[in-house]
Nucleotidyltransferase (Streptosporangium subroseum), 364 residues
Amino acid sequence: MMETPLPELEAILLVGGQGTRLRPLTLGTPKPLLPTAGVPFLAHQLARARASGVRRIVFATSYRAEMFCEAFGDGSAFGLSLEYMTEETPLGTGGAIRNAAEALSSGPDAPVLVLNGDILSGHDIREQVDMHVAREAAVTLHLTEVEDPSRFGCVPTDDDGRVTAFLEKTPNPVTNRINAGCYVFTRSVIDSIPADEVVSVERETFPSLIEGGALVLGYADASYWLDVGTPAAFVQGSRDLVLGRLVSPALPGPTGDFLALPGAMISPEAKVGGGSVIGARAAVESGAQVSGSVLGDDCVIQSGAVVVDSVVGIGARVDSGAVLREVVVGDRAVVGPGNELLAGSRIWPGIVLPECAIRFSSDA
Ligand code: GTP
């Protein structure tokens, strides 16, 4: 007997958010397009989706919608067919899924994959879809475990994997298992979300499906997972891809201690590592130290400067002897000589910080 081929899987990619937690990086570029390990963040997700059998993806866009089509076009470079559906005003995660579904060709019983556009995940998408289909679920949520679940949707399940509650950002989580931002919906369930309304799947759709007795399943696993919503997590994601902690077919070079993009100039007397990316034509001068950081194209790290776990924007400059730890420097900003910036500092694009304006050392 001939085996029935797997039906082609369609996906919706949620990319309409404003990425407020990543400002100023997201002032000009949506979070899913930020350069991450040398390519737009989404390139890693698209490559992984393609590898798990997805062939057609509808982007649910809103904030700076046109930039997605400029970056990815019709998707042929990725072996994918891409469509773009834009909300005039953001409709929330549920409203966005409903709106994007207008462009799907899947029938009412088909599984549809839905991905948050800011997640790096090594889980087996195909296995999640297979579980959904085999158990005829309404929705199957990817679940992962984190140390502090209070910032996420906490998702308890019973022994059969059935989700018993969906508790979005609760101060008293009942489990460390959280919503990992990758769902399989049966198409007809998407069609039951009200059209042209602001709806949150996390606050409305999932809780009401569970209350109404629909089969909502949890697909739990322990593979690599990261939500890149904050600057610290964004830097970590880029670092993990460069170091090979998460394998990505989209990485533009071999994995290693750092990734230098074309035209990057790194002095032999500089110390660069920890999974850093050195942007195209960026310069790291003699005696500078760069570790675990993302340096944008055309930026300059002058001699003796120290940049650790930070993002330095396109065309920005970090002057001699400046020290940055867990800092975001916006595009074209200048950190003058001798400044010392600590965790959480954010320099807005184009700002020039004068010499020794900020120091934390006791000798200052
Ligand atoms: P923050 O503002 O920093 O919280 O980031 P965000 O705007 O991306 O919000 P959040 O991380 O909660 O969003 C989860 C995913 O849904 C992201 O991939 C967003 O791009 C996407 N998203 C959130 N709201 C909307 C929306 O109204 N429309 C669309 N199309 N996508 C959305």
